[in-house]
Amino acid sequence: MTITxxxxxxxxxxxxxxKGNREARDDDLALYFDxxxxxxxxxxxxxxxxxxxxxGRDVPEFKSLSRLRRKIQSEGLYPGTRQLRRQEEEKEVRxxxxxxxx
Length: 102
Prior knowledge:
5 helices, about 100 residues
């Protein structure tokens, strides 16, 4: 499946959820959990317990934590494995290209 097909498929699924789940219209976590139950086969009761535990505490939104991680890593701290691999590949390409011109 191409990325375009995946996006179209995901959009159709999200629209289906939003059509029937009013809570998901205002709550990304509710949307995500509903998606997991419907399309990933995750147990609804398990997610309900987790959802109630998360919503009952002072826990930042997932997307806020994601933004903070990206911000910290953009400052050069704690790079992820994929980022390190990409940097190594870029270094190899630069060395290869630099070796050709010399």
